[in-house]
Amino acid sequence: MKFIQTSLLTLLLIAPGAAMAGDIDELTAQCDSCHGVDGASMSSDVPIIGGQSKKYIFETLESFQDWARPCIKSSYRSGDTARPKTDMCKIAGGLSREDISALSAHYSSLPWLPAIQDFDAVAAEAGNLIQQESCESCHHEGGKALGGLGPRLAGQWKPYMKATLKFVPTGEHLVPPTMERSVTDFSDADINAVLDFYASQQD
Ligand code: HEC
Ligand code: HEC
């Protein structure tokens, strides 16, 4: 009897943890088939999420649930690539608050692996100055920091950042008014230069 009681107790203690681990593996398998192994995206139009801040990942998934960001159709990049295209609003729509908590804890605990990508070194120098003046207040430490108002940008894919910034002036991607003003006021060349600066940070 004592043995049975002990086994039962062990089961009760282990079971919730085991169930959680199973769920997170299942959840991240879907994410990783677009965002890359451990969220280190190898596709220039899919953002790196491994090593991004917990708060940002959490809030972003909620924004997708509320359709506060554009819901771009995307194909799967690995695994069963014949699956029909889907988008982040649909994916986030299927997540519970607990899933979102678990996913943001998981991806924020992983290392940030910067994208190895081309950039214009001369433009990146000019971009560094614009970053310091107009972006540093929220994207701290040249865009490397996690604790600022805005997400980590240093080492993020430039094509992804360029594509998502197009939705700022149209109001489809909601960002703070100060950033919206900067992004709207700067020329395309200036914005490109800042993105080259972020792309140049590869370590
Ligand atoms: C079919 C491909 C696909 C799948 C599956 C997918 N994503 Fe995404 N995700 C994208 C694309 C493409 C974007 C960028 C485009 C956009 O903003 O809609 C994105 C954007 C994001 C962002 C915003 C990142 C940023 O820098 O702003 C987060 C966070 C995110 N996804 C998390 C997840 C999580 C967590 C899962 C799994 C539950 C997941 N994604 C599954 C393709 C996918
Ligand atoms: C007032 C604070 C603030 C300033 C200033 C600011 N940003 Fe942002 N930025 C944010 C926040 C907050 C987000 C996240 C918005 C969201 O919820 O999707 C963001 C998102 C972004 C993104 C999208 C990142 C991603 O992974 O999807 C890019 C690119 C970006 N900012 C570039 C810039 C650039 C370039 C500048 C300077 C010209 C700048 N920001 C200035 C706060 C700011």
Explain this structure.
There is one protein chain. With 203 residues, the protein is mainly alpha-helical. It folds into 2 domains: 2-108, Cytochrome Bc1 Complex, Chain D, domain 2, CATH 1.10.760; 121-200, Cytochrome c-like domain (Cytochrome Bc1 Complex, Chain D, domain 2, Orthogonal Bundle), CATH 1.10.760.10. It is 56% helix and 0% strand. It contains 9 helices and no strands. The protein has helices at 2-35, 54-65, 88-93, 97-108, 121-135, 140-143, 158-165, 177-185, 188-200. Helix 2 packs antiparallel against helix 4 and helix 5 (121-135) packs across helix 9. The longest helix is centred in the first third of the chain and has 34 residues, at 2-35. It is globular and about 45 Å long. The N and C termini lie far apart (59 Å). Mean pLDDT is 90; it is low at 8-19. Bound molecules: heme C (2 copies). One heme C (HEC) is lined by residues 47, 60, 63, 69, 134-135, 137-139, 149-151, 153, 156, 161, 164-165, 175-176, 178-179, 182-183, 194.
Concise overview:
This protein is mainly alpha-helical and 203 residues long.
Task: Give a quick set of tags describing it.
mainly alpha, 2 domains, 9 helices, Cytochrome Bc1 Complex, Chain D, domain 2, binds heme C, 203 residues, 56% helix, single chain
Topology record:
Blueprint: H1 2-35, H2 54-65, H3 88-93, H4 97-108, H5 121-135, H6 140-143, H7 158-165, H8 177-185, H9 188-200
Helix pairs in contact: 1-4, 2-4, 5-9
This protein binds heme C (2 copies).
